[in-house]
Write a structure and sequence with these properties.
Rhopdopsin 7-helix transmembrane proteins; mainly alpha
Length: about 350
């Protein structure tokens, strides 16, 4: 979590066109598109029973994304210098805290989803019973309780009144608040790097398993081609085996959406915040222009983190068959709509690697 600055400081002012115009416009786009997509996702998802670990985790991400979207209007007003002093105080005390709360909750659930996708790929026939679902629900609740326990003191300890119209969020924190803020920063770093290691490990195992499955299928196909007994048998193989190969590759590729969204949205910010934090704590090592550069880099990558609220619906659509079915039913569309885009047909035979590898639940 970061301490946002709302002040100007001579030649080191951050109030340039990038901060006051470009970022508010970009967040406005996220607010408009993300708000509509997440409202639709929430409407659809909460009509789906929680019959798998994957759906439980996705529902939690939907809630986090909706809450994150609620913070965008306050950030837009604050960054564009259109907010009153009272509203900027609210941003420091609550809105920015909620933003980072939802970001790290999403990161934690991305890690859990990666573990679940890995388990389903390596053990595709392991079932899910009521006891396991209950444990996942309790785990989800524990994630929210843990993050709330970290973030609520940040709200309570940001209790000072602003001494001037221009102020930093750190000016509103008590001494205990500054100390707790530093503790939370370290905990959030641990959360990110631990989940990055989890995601990389899980998708390395998934890639290995998919490669082995593809090699095995290719070898069987080559063996069948060498033993073609007749023209009719050859035609049957071509009719059944040929068209399924592109779908098999497409289904296998969809599972990597989680990895792609994680790396696009969360990795750049956590790499950029290292030099940014150094520029804020080791003032003498950085001149004004360098501080401004790292601030703009941090804000740019923070917007990428916010983009998560817009990209997550892609995961719901491509990886969750139950979500697609409920969405098409809500929109009164036939079940096979966009099957070419999702890389799947409407029948069970169109998923040759099984739903385990692609997360179709």
């Amino acid at each position: 979590m970061e301490i946002h600055s709302n002040h100007t400081n001579g030649s080191c002012s951050r109030d340039n066109a990038l901060k006051t115009v470009v970022f508010p416009v970009l967040y406005s786009v996220l607010l408009l598109l993300g708000g509509m997509l997440n409202a639709l996702a929430a409407w659809v998802f909460f009509r789906i029973p929680s019959r798998s670990h994957f759906i439980i985790y996705l529902k939690n991400i939907v809630v986090a994304d909706v809450l994150m979207t609620f913070t965008f209007p306050f950030k837009i007003l604050s960054d564009s210098n259109m907010a009153s002093v009272g509203l900027r105080v609210f941003v420091c005390r609550a809105s920015s805290v909620l933003f980072y709360l939802t970001m790290y909750i999403s990161i934690l659930f991305f890690g859990l989803i990666s573990i679940d996708r890995c388990r389903k790929t390596l053990r595709p026939f392991q079932g899910t019973d009521a006891a396991r679902l209950t444990r996942r629900k309790l785990l989800s609740g524990a994630v929210w309780c843990l993050m709330l326990a970290l973030c609520v003191p940040n709200v309570a300890l940001t209790s000072k009144a602003p001494a001037a119209p221009r102020f930093k969020c750190s000016d509103l924190k008590t001494e205990a608040g500054l100390w707790w803020h530093e503790v939370v920063n370290h905990v959030c770093q641990v959360i990110f790097w631990a989940n990055l290691a989890t995601v990389v490990t899980c998708y390395t195992l998934i890639t290995k398993e998919l490669y082995v499955s593809y090699s095995r299928t290719k070898a069987r196909g080559a063996g069948g081609a060498m033993q073609r007994p007749s023209g009719g048998a050859t035609a049957a193989v071509a009719a059944t085996g040929g068209p399924s190969q592109p779908k098999r590759r497409s289904v296998s590729g969809n599972v990597f959406l989680v990895l792609a969204v994680f790396f696009v949205c969360f990795v750049p910010f956590h790499f950029a915040r290292v030099p940014y934090t150094m520029s804020q704590t080791r003032v003498r090592l950085f001149d004004c222009q360098l501080k401004l550069f790292f601030f703009q880099l941090k804000e740019s990558t923070l917007w990428l983190s916010s983009l998560n609220s817009l990209l997550d619906p892609l995961i719901y659509f491509f990886l969750c068959r139950s979500f697609r079915a409920a969405l098409f039913k809500t929109l009164s569309l036939p079940p096979a709509t966009c099957s070419w885009l999702a890389g799947r047909g409407s029948g069970p035979s169109s998923v040759p690697l099984g739903t385990s590898s692609a997360g179709g639940v």
